[in-house]
């Protein structure tokens, strides 16, 4: 099976004074503005790192659901946040780390089985496999 999805971006102008828009094939994002100030100076709006974080959090949550299902468990709720670290390195910038923070409510799950599933999902998530960055995880099972 091969699935292809797309996202696109249009940029106009120089790095600091320019502006761009980002869109997705599905139309969920349509001409969402992004800029240097939104990425590096804290101005409100979207940027590549938050989009990567959203993609990673959603992929991880689905991977965890799959692994739990294989163990005969169904999550009532999985909430994941991916914190993406962009750092200045020699020669420019790089995404150096991503920290996944997940909280799940899973009826019938014990802590050991949950932590095992959470770790397997971190390693097996297709988006995790994409990055050349340290990926860490904090996983909490709710009662």
Automatic annotation (TrEMBL):
Superkingdom of the source species: Bacteria
Family matches, as InterPro entries: KH_dom-like_a/b, OsmC/Ohr_fam, OsmC/Ohrsf, OsmC_Ohr_Peroxiredoxin, Peroxiredoxin_OsmC
Pfam families: OsmC
SUPFAM superfamilies noted in UniProt: OsmC-like
PANTHER family in alphabetical order: OSMOTICALLY INDUCIBLE FAMILY PROTEIN
Official protein name in the record: OsmC family protein
Species: Halomonas gemina
Source organism phylogeny: Bacteria, Pseudomonadati, Pseudomonadota, Gammaproteobacteria, Oceanospirillales
């Amino acid at each position: 099976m091969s699935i292809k999805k797309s996202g696109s971006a249009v940029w106009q102008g120089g790095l600091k004074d320019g502006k761009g828009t980002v869109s997705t094939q599905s139309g969920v994002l349509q001409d969402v503005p992004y800029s240097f100030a939104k990425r590096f100076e804290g101005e409100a709006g979207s940027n590549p790192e938050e989009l990567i974080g959203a993609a990673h959090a959603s992929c991880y949550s689905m991977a965890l659901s799959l692994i739990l299902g294989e163990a005969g468990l169904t999550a009532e709720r999985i909430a994941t946040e991916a914190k993406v670290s962009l750092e200045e390195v020699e020669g420019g910038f790089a995404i150096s780390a991503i920290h996944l923070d997940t909280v799940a409510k899973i009826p019938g799950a014990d802590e050991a089985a949950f932590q095992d599933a959470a770790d397997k999902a971190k390693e097996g998530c297709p988006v995790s496999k994409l990055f050349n960055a340290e990926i860490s995880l904090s996983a909490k099972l709710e009662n």
